[in-house]
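Schema walk-through. Below, the input block comes first and the output block second. Nothing else is stored per chain. Lengths vary across the set, and this one has 121 residues.
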Amino acid sequence: MKHITTLPQPAPDAEIDYPKPERLVTGNPKRTTYNYFTSSNSGMDAGIWCCEAGAWRIAFADDTDEFFTVLEGIVRLHDEAGIVKEIGPGEAAVIPAGFKGMFEVVEPVRKYYVIVKRTAA
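--- output ---
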C-alpha cells in the first residue's frame, strides 16, 4: 500500500557528510541530510538538507536534476560563466542536469530538496 510522506515529522536518521577535499573552495561545512523519501521506480529522493557556511565545486550528472526551496539561510549558485544566483528563505531554484559550478552557503541553510535521477527507457 502507498502512503503519503510528510515533512518534517517524524525525522529519519540524519546522514552527515562533508565536501570532498578536492572540491572545497572555502571552509569544510558539515552537511546533514534527512532523506524522507526514496523511490527506486522514479529515481526520486526528497527530504531536508542542512549545511554550515562554506563553498565547494559541484558537477551534476547528465541524468540528475534538483529542485529545492530554502527554508532558512542563504545560498549562492555560481555557474561556469560567472553568473551568480542567490536564493534565500521562501525562494526556490532548480539545478539542472549537467550543471557545473560552485555551491556557496553564505548563511547556514536548511532547505527542502527533490532530486530526480532519470533512468534510460
